[in-house]
């Protein structure tokens, strides 16, 4: 008498791969797909490295300021006497002041510095930076050729008085903790446009972790909208 056959199919020798192969169309080349997929992943990673690492390094040149400056030291009333102001913003505006006609002076000129550092033979501290400043600039009456991190393109009009005095915007809202730094950051200049990386943003991806990471038009429009001044997003408000 013959034994009844089992209803379940037998698994062929060599495992289940041939079983799965019954469901794969003959025109589908799995080996080719795997190679193409590996090439795509490698190409994608290579493009990210080229675009987000190598390209920014080639696009920007790093330059040091003509001398260092300690903002934190000058804002410390226990060390420095002569910078007037009760708040940090008022002390910032003592050196970065508004002129009598309301225009913003920006980076202080030598004349402002010599209100305190008036004698090249008598330094107020013991730092090598002050000694260099007195000997190289004060004694020779030469302006320090500072590199501006925040110089906007020539087609952009920006009014500090409208933002600081009328809008009561704190300096740190746009400049971050730059005023409390002990050393000046490296200045990075765009080789094509000539402007600072702090204008266009330090991350080529466009992502920003703080409002002061960049100063692009979209950032200005975003702030205007948040503060209920969408009318200031019109083109000719800033582009004169």
Question: Care to describe what's here?
Answer:
The chain is mainly α and 240 residues long. The protein has a domain at 62-107 and 146-238. Helix content is 38%, strand content 3%. It has 11 helices and 2 strands, in the order ααβααααααβααα. The chain has helices at residues 17-21, 30-59, 71-74, 88-95, 110-113, 128-138, 160-166, 171-175, 197-200, 217-226, 235-238; strands spanning 60-63, 187-190. A two-stranded antiparallel sheet has the order 1-2. The longest helix is centred in the first third of the chain and has 30 residues, at 30-59.
Number of strands: 2
As a percent range, the share of helical residues equals 25-40%
Q: SS-based structural class?
A: mainly alpha
Radius of gyration: 31 Å
Topology pattern, helix = H, strand = E: HHEHHHHHHEHHH
Output the number of helix runs.
Answer: 11
Largest sheet descriptor? 2 strands, antiparallel
Overall outline: elongated
The end-to-end distance, rounded to whole angstroms, is 104 Å
Which spans of ≥5 residues are poorly predicted at pLDDT below 50? Answer: 10-16
Largest beta sheet: what is the strand line-up? 1-2
Residue share in β-strands: under 5%
Taking all residues together, what is the mean pLDDT?
Answer: 85
């Amino acid at each position: 008498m013959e034994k009844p056959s089992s209803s379940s199919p037998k698994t062929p020798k060599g495992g289940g791969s041939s079983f799965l192969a019954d469901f794969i169309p003959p025109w589908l080349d799995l080996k080719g797909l795997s190679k193409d997929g590996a090439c795509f992943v490698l190409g994608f990673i290579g493009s990210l490295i080229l675009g987000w690492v190598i390209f920014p390094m080639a696009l920007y040149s790093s330059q040091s300021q003509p001398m260092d400056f300690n903002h934190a030291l000058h804002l410390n009333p226990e060390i420095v006497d002569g910078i007037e102001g009760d708040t940090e913003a008022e002390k910032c505006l003592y050196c970065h002041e508004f002129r009598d006609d309301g225009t913003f002076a920006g980076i202080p000129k030598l004349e402002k510095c010599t209100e305190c550092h008036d004698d090249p033979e008598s330094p107020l501290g013991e730092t090598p930076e002050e000694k260099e400043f007195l000997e190289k600039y004060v004694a020779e009456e030469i302006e320090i050729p500072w590199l501006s991190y925040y110089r906007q393109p020539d087609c952009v009009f920006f009014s500090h008085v409208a933002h600081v005095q009328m809008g009561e915007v704190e300096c740190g809202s746009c400049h971050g903790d730059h005023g409390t730094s002990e050393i000046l950051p490296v200045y990075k200049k765009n080789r094509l446009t000539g402007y600072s990386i702090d204008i266009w943003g330090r991350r080529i991806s466009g992502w920003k972790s703080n409002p002061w990471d960049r100063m692009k038009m979209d950032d200005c429009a975003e702030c205007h909208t948040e503060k209920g001044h969408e009318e200031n997003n019109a083109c000719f408000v800033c582009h004169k």
